[in-house]
């Protein structure tokens, strides 16, 4: 029996703990081909590289597990896989992660992890972005890996008639502390940015970006932010069509 082909990428880089361990878990379920950025590419969303060359290097070569490093963004990695390395092959599942840091709420728009997950779904295979609510590079991933295994198993056995991309976030804690899985909607909110201005030794100003997420509906129990903060694994189905259909009729009146 032919093993299903699973593609994996991330935005934390090819050496990230979450990525490497996800590759190992996925290899239990099929043949894995993974391409990850050579360096950290967090916050790159759907960015692609157009004005400089990309360098692809194989870093792991085993019978059912090949891992590559690419000098590009997460979406570059997905495009390199589907449009070059795996061109003509049937990919059963596309995974992105496991990201160190959650991608709930509006983070889905900024996230390189989710940018790559959405890109994977464009090629006709189910796609899942996986993130844990812990930015520590050495985070405890036991719970996240159990969730990843469950998602891989479920997605490989499911049949879909439409484009599928899931944003999955796992709370911090041991596997036994997880309260379950919730299908949620994206929390409404925004980031309020701050720019910390400093000076270099020559007196030139430079800036570090920081800020805080402003949750516009902290008590709404059907959102991913609420569920994640209350110990649930959150699953939000996302799509690329950003058309505001509810505003179309009103715009016809105005314009």
For this entry, give a set of tags.
nine-stranded mixed sheet, 255 residues, Stationary-phase Survival Protein Sure Homolog, Chain: A, two-stranded antiparallel sheet
Structural class: alpha/beta
The CATH topology: Stationary-phase Survival Protein Sure Homolog, Chain: A
What is the terminal separation in angstroms?
A: 58 Å
Instruction: Give helix % range.
Output: 25-40%
Q: What sequence of helices (H) and strands (E) makes up the elements?
A: EHEEEHEHHEHEEEEHEH
Runs in which pLDDT lies below 50 for 5 or more consecutive residues are none
Shape descriptor reads globular
Alpha carbon gyration radius: 19 Å
- Can you give the mean pLDDT? 96
Strand content: 25-35%
- State the CATH class: Alpha Beta
Strand order of the largest sheet: 3-4-2-1-5-6-7-11-8
Number of separate structural domains: 1
Q: Count the E strands.
A: 11
By DSSP (H or I, 4+ residues per run), the number of helices equals 7
Q: What would CATH call the architecture?
A: 3-Layer(aba) Sandwich
The biggest beta sheet is recorded as:
9 strands, mixed
CATH superfamily: Survival protein SurE-like phosphatase/nucleotidase
